[in-house]
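Hello everyone,

My group is preparing for a crystallization screen and wants a predicted model to guide construct design. The compound we'll soak is fe (ii) ion. Before spending weeks at the bench, it would help to have a computed complex in hand. I've included the protein sequence and the ligand's SMILES below. Output in structure-token form would be ideal because that's what our pipeline reads.
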Amino acid sequence: MLPESENEHAMSELIIEYPVCATEGRELLPAQTVLSDENLKKMISGNQSPIRTGRLLDFGSIKSDILEFLDQDNYLAVFDNRETRQRLMARMMKTELPLSLLESIYLFREYDFYTYRHLLTVSALSTLLAEYLVKDRISIMDDIVGPPSHDIGKIAVPIDILNKPTPLTSDEHNILKHHTLTGYVLLCYYFRDPVNITARVARDHHERRDGSGYPRGIRIDDTMIELVIVTDIYDALISSRPYRPSSYDKRTALEEITRMAEIGQVSWNVVKVLINQNRKKRVSIGDCLVSLEKRGVPPPDNLYGIIADKDLCKPKK
Ligand SMILES: [Fe+2]
Ligand SMILES: [Fe+2]
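Reply:
Good plan to model first. Here are the tokens for the complex, ready for your pipeline.
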């Protein structure tokens, strides 16, 4: 088992604001539960049925969907040759997950196709980039970044919030942000493991290196989580969303992530690997030079991060 991060002591202060329910509707934890080890273990012990698992790529049309997504413009530069795809598919083929989780992932295919696509592309890109970041721990990385589950907690976010084309109110933003904790609880439950690393990725993928993220505002310094942090941001930028009908072009998206690395929010190493894989001529990471020049133009109609009633909100204690 992998060691918990140094920041783990903050765990005792983490409280869910909303109840978390399993896919069949049963409440797993009520609102205001402290996410302590003890409470998570108690929740898990209530699930006595044997864990049934299935292979990710054998479930529904997931395999052909991933291949189709990687063929789209913004990903072609990274997954440009047959050998890369075959290698990726061979690694993803090993990913076996609890059936309840696979069913949850597949639910998004029906009711929120953007999130379904996002889960699969972040998982594929993270799996590929892991080869260059942690060669020595690659099988562990596959268990962590391979499962397309970092945003699984969005299953509890109402669809009209997920797809709202205008700025969210602060209440709606709080509901959206809660997907990190909902995902954490659900994955601990599905894997029957209160310190499951995939669950920690779901909990921490909106945290930042400088402590400016959420839900805890802790400083992240863990390659396994930072990899998903960067691929998550990158995929969100290059995809069109209801709040941003035109996506960032690839160049501007990479410049934006470079800017985040410059101000210490995300990992330089991961950003370099991502930029290198987007280039025609790839070099070893030590030789990868990144220009700090910004020439790209972000899309004009981007409402990301704008809160409708921000001035009305009182600061949270
Ligand atoms: Fe997220
Ligand atoms: Fe995400």
